[in-house]
Amino acid sequence: MQLPVKAIWVFHAVAKAGSVSRAAEELGVTPSAVSQQIQALEVQLGLSLMHKAGRRVVLTEAGERYFATIDDEIGRIVEATSAIRGYRSVTSLTVRATPTLSNKWLLPRLQTFLDLYPDIEIRIDGTNEPTDFNREIVDLEIRHGDGRWPGLFVEGMGEETFVPACAPSLAASGSLSPEDLPSYRLIHSVKSQAQWGRWFAEAGVRPTQRWRRLLFDRSHMAIDAASGGMGIALESTTMMEREFANGTLLCPVAKPPRIGIVTQWIVCPRDHLRHKKVQAFLEWLRTNREFSRTVQSK
Hints:
Elements: H1 5-17, H2 20-27, H3 31-45, E1 50-53, E2 56-59, H4 61-84, E3 91-97, H5 99-116, E4 120-126, E5 140-144, E6 153-156, E7 160-165, E8 186-189, H6 196-203, E9 213-216, H7 219-227, E10 232-236, H8 241-246, E11 259-261, E12 264-268, H9 276-288, E13 295-297
Parallel strand pairs: 3-4, 3-5, 8-9, 8-10
Antiparallel strand pairs: 1-2, 5-12, 6-12, 6-13, 7-10, 7-11
């Protein structure tokens, strides 16, 4: 049975107003049209909902019960309609990225994207959990890892350089040699692809004693700890560029060995690339950062 939505709405208006003519005025139709809708509803329901009492209408027992049942629901529809009225249509883009990249690299640049694409409403989902594109509503992800995710479009975001970094209060720029670092507390990002053991090997240093450690599972926490003078961190210059620019971090080693790794990757199903909003964000990423040629389409 097709629901007689219009007739139900008219019945609600008459029951609330207590008058056919008053309801007709509120609805912007003639009293005759209102009466026809009420009659049609009564025929479809097979019972009488109201009767006239002078210039007013009185609900029958069935009419009172029906009105009480639908009143709250119609009220919610009215509220929802009033709330949504005036909202302009927007294109929503959901981007997932690691907390460190979201906070240290993406957020400082995001205003330029908003200026270029004011009609795109963007949501940044800051998490290390990889996206299950079959179950989650995510348009594009910037994923930390080695770039090996079969079945997805994968593009490297460019090689990052990892260097020791500390607060100026701990050591001056270029004042330390690699051999000096084991005597300081060394800050570790346990999930980082660049670890102190590799750095010392690249520098040709074999620490003779176990160094003091401070460990974090998020790079942005390691960076903030180093900025606070807690020790020396081995982190990406890309993720530390804001701190290097404002002077809260510096490299205390004069000529540190270079460790370059692609650790961040643009990832999404290939069919997502057809969407203009995804194309826009991808092109914006490419123009706001030098990308490596590391491109994989698996």
